[in-house]
Amino acid sequence: MNTLRRRLLFISALVVLGLSGCNPFAMGIATPIPVPPWLPDQIEARMLNPADSNTVILQPIPAGYRPLCEDPPDKATILRAMPAVVRGIPYIYEEFRDDVDVSVERLVDEIDPPRFFPLIGPAQLHHCHYKCMVYYTETIQSDVPIPFQTKKRRVEVVYIDRDHLHMYACTPEQKASMAQDFKTIMP
Fold first, then answer.
1. Which of 30, 73, 100, 127 sits at a 20 to 30 Å CA gap from 12?
2. What is the mean pLDDT of residues 72-90?
């Protein structure tokens, strides 16, 4: 009898706690999970542009050959790296960027000596750093309460790193194996 009473008391305590506001999971599967408002935008940008954050792994560098940084960032990559336009209130405060012109300058083009990278193996890091100048017209306008529009010519500087890895073969057998592997991966 005593154990039955204890079990009923324990079950009633669980029911009371489960139905009270103290339990964060009282709503079950419908419990709301707080999500910051910028998180979906970051996830969408990462899914649409996976190459922006990936490090590319290329073939080994042949003896006597010095590769150059031949893949400067394109206009879309540069504009994504710029600070975002201020989200305004429609008809009260709106900001636009018009007449966008981009110039790209290569700052660094060097190759580090070979070293071991975890999950990759021996490789050489090729540094490619670019200075991107973005010229645009900033337009700020409002229609309510007093209609106005201002246009200013602006310049924004964005630095972009396009580093990538070159596999490094230590022995002739490794070089032959890597060459064969890259031929099967990249036709």
1. 30
2. 91
